[in-house]
Specification:
Blueprint (H helix, E strand, L loop, with lengths): L2 H31 L7 H14 L1 H8 L4 H24 L4 H23 L4 H27 L2 H14 L1 H14 L16 H23 L3 H11 L3 H6 L2 H21 L5 H22 L4 H12 L1 H12 L4 H21 L4 H34 L1
Helix pairs in contact: 1-4, 1-5, 1-6, 1-7, 2-5, 2-16, 3-5, 3-16, 4-5, 4-8, 5-16, 6-12, 6-15, 9-15, 9-16, 9-17, 10-14, 12-13, 12-14, 12-15, 13-14, 13-15, 13-17, 15-16
Length: 385
Amino acid sequence: MSDNKKYSLKLLLMGLLHFYIDFACHFYAFGLLAPQYPGRLTELFLAYNFIAFALQCPIGYYVDRINRKFFMGVGMGIGLVCLYQGYAAGTKLNWPVVGLICCALGNAFIHAVGSRAVMEKSRRGLMGGGIFIAFGALGVGLGDYLGITLEHSFDRLLVWLIEAFMLPFLAYGVINIKKARETGVLGSEDIRVSLDGNDMICLIMCLFAVLVRSYVGFILPNTFKELIVTDTMETGGLLEAMFPSVPGFLGKAAGGVLVVILMRLFNGKDLRKMNYRYGIFALFAAGLCLCAGGEEPVCVLIGTVLFHSLMPVTLYEIYCILHKNPAFSLGLTTLMLFAGMLPALLYKPDDGQRRILIAAFCGAALMALAIGYRACSKKNEEDAR
């Protein structure tokens, strides 16, 4: 089998794993936990996101320093066992909060596994990071819907299906552990990074852009959900519930692919610079659609897709700066996502304020990406001397 086919299969496996873990966690949260704590959902949501997203940063830092094959096995095993224990604690021991903590830990480890598996310093890594993350959007949407709508009798059946579904992933993990015996547990390669001034500027600007993307993403209008699905298709249920997840899936999956296509169309040689250029264009076009387009469903839909397409752009740039640290790179972005989520939960803008805030924050993120692009260009000029 060729390397490209092997990578495609690995990417598909990691994408399905991401879909699975996000679906299982959100099904647990809404189907098994929320009915027991109807008045404390915000606190539980914050606790889950802190463990599942903010803790990816320290987890990713350490897992990048472990033999790759060994971590693929052990990390995947830890993640899935945490998920299993979460369901066991919530359904069999009646410890729902303990179950939520276990599920969140499983989510954090699986993200580290997937990012390390699919992100490589090449065009494949730019596309792979976005596609891997995109599958999670569908898992979240389906988990929320089934968790809210299924009757209790079906909950138990789905729990068993979720637990059975982890078996092939556990088998894959065991295979990787056996392969790791040949090279040892600790990685032999030095992956420490020395950053100069331009690298630090690029890193800070990209992290700021992720922070902004997180906040704006939480206050984006959802009018297209009702305007497109309900009015044109006259149907509700699963389709209506999943539709808001589609722009996130399309944007995250397409962002990295579009950058590579642009490279080929314009015979570009510098992937990082083309990455920045696309990011600046996509953010400007997204802000224009979301602010000037009003509540026109097509404008909102296009703007949301373009906005989500920034995810692989910033993730790959951070990884290029922190090369050979894929899990830590994703961990930094998820930490910024968690930080950007906090003010959105504390303050809910009305429709008029929302448009102003989107315009202001998109402008700030545009400035950050422009500064990062300039620093990246200076870095290339210095390296070429």
